[in-house]
Amino acid sequence: MAAAANHHLLLLLSLSLLSLSTAPPPPSETQSLLKLKLSLKNSDKNLASWIPNVSPCSGTWTGVICFNNVITGLHLSDLGLSGTIDVDAISEIRGLRTLSFVNNSFSGPIPQFNKLGMIKSLLLTQNQFSGPIPPDFFAHLTSLKKIWFTNNKFTGSIPVSLTELDLLKELHLEGNQFSGQLPNLKQDIKSFDVSNNKLEGPIPEGLAKFSAASFSGNEGLCGKPLEKQCDASSSSEYSLADGLTENSSGSDLAVKVIVILILAVIAAGIFMFVKSRQHRRDDDFSVVSRDSSRDSSVEEVMQVNVPISRSTSASERVGRRNVGESSKRGGMGGGTRNGLGDLVMVNDEKGTFGLQDLMKAAAEVLGNGGLGSAYKAAMANGLSVVVKRMREMNKIGKDVFDAEMRQFGRIRHANILTPLAYHYRREEKLFVTEYMPKGSLLYVLHGDRGSSHAELTWPIRLKIAKGIARGLSFLYNEFCTYDLPHGNLKSSNVLINDEYEPMLSDYAFQPLINPSIAVQSMFAFKTPDYAQNQKLTQKADVYCLGIILLELITGKFPSQYHSNGKGGTDVVQWVLTAISDRREAELIDPELQKNAPNSTNNMLQLLLIGAACTESNPEQRVHMKEAIRRIEDIQL
Hints:
- This protein is of the alpha/beta class and 636 residues long.
């Protein structure tokens, strides 16, 4: 009963805008954040919105993620921060589940994040952290699902305590200086990369399912999926990784093996006891679906612990306090007792539903983007949807907004994600679309090292490029009078369905978004067009298309996606330099060339189209119609 009640409460936590009476975070947590700010360099400028007497959950504090006015995430990425992170201050934020310091300038030993026992995502990519990580560092972080330590300077062995993280789904340690052998990770990990370290020895059987690219740049590694075979000594060393050596005598070896077996039995008993205790604890906390293997973004915000009253079910409390009497068929704008209205269905091809259906759905948080937060809701009828919570769509009135949403809802195109419903409130809007299990192109290209990534062959990547082009062709006819028929085109807004058909999302939003927010959050405003001239034309969408084409062919993460340009690869400059030096073929993703060696010329055609789209001068840049025609002309 408790677990069922937890599931009913999950979406209530996510859709905090529907709460009628919520309390701000405790003053102590506000003080904790201010203490954290004092410990960081450059915070006066980049965390200027962190000020006393304003609630961290007011929506104005940079990087602070809240649900139901409880702080659940700190996303302090791309802010040029450095200094000594005050972990003690962070530990005072009891509801914290996600911590991201991606793409900053922190250095020195890893902070004592192991004090944060309930953290679920720890993201430290693109910093200068260095030195070894203690072997037992992760021993008490048993809730961790995501660990991204990419591109730091960590040394020493990969901590063996990683093997104790039963919920671990994503582990990225590439671009460091880890040495020694890989621990035998047997969890159901979905995304994994340890490339470009100094690792050696056999690859454990449980990790052999990942592609060779996940292990490249480690000359000492051997075994599947690498072509390098392990010799007898390395195999023996791995099978007796606890220290048994080839020259052990027969009797010594037998004694040691017996000791190992005894310890294994004891460990199994302890494990079962801990699991039973963990199962009881789960009844007291809202838990995100543990079966989720795909997110639309490399950053996950987890749910906060909420005690459940055993006397009243969560669904009863939700219905009484927040929803009221919603229409059984989802309503076409029908009101509720609380005056919040219901969902307005604009596309009923997947059936109709209302706020009550969402409230009863199992939910998980997908992430937080420039335009708002996103959540997955799996409803009882089997339909899974994404609910986007938009805070800054106040540029137009309700009637015009409704007309825009209904125009979106009439769209029928294989490469356009059509919205299903929306909910209007002056302060915030909900935007509901179908959920795509494979996630975004960004995730499949850079985050997923499993089967979906392995299937990104040349035919599939060309299919994706052509699908994006066809989707843009439709948008440029449907919204031809808009300055930006798309406006936010990037790989995270290209969703991939089960047949690897791309579907464009977050399109044609510019007329709806407050201008100051559009400049900060829409990718078209990151192009040279706006940076140099402070104005935009449809050529900005062309530039954004070019970034995706270069991303598809090179397999590199574009630095243009980072707000400060640090981290990743400047694919535009890299390609421009290579073309001038006649080294274009060197840019092609090695995985593409390996799978389709006879298609190099066609790959280069797509690369050159991407280069033409990313010409810095808009006047000399190819037009969208011409770019689409060239993409369609490429053959396998």
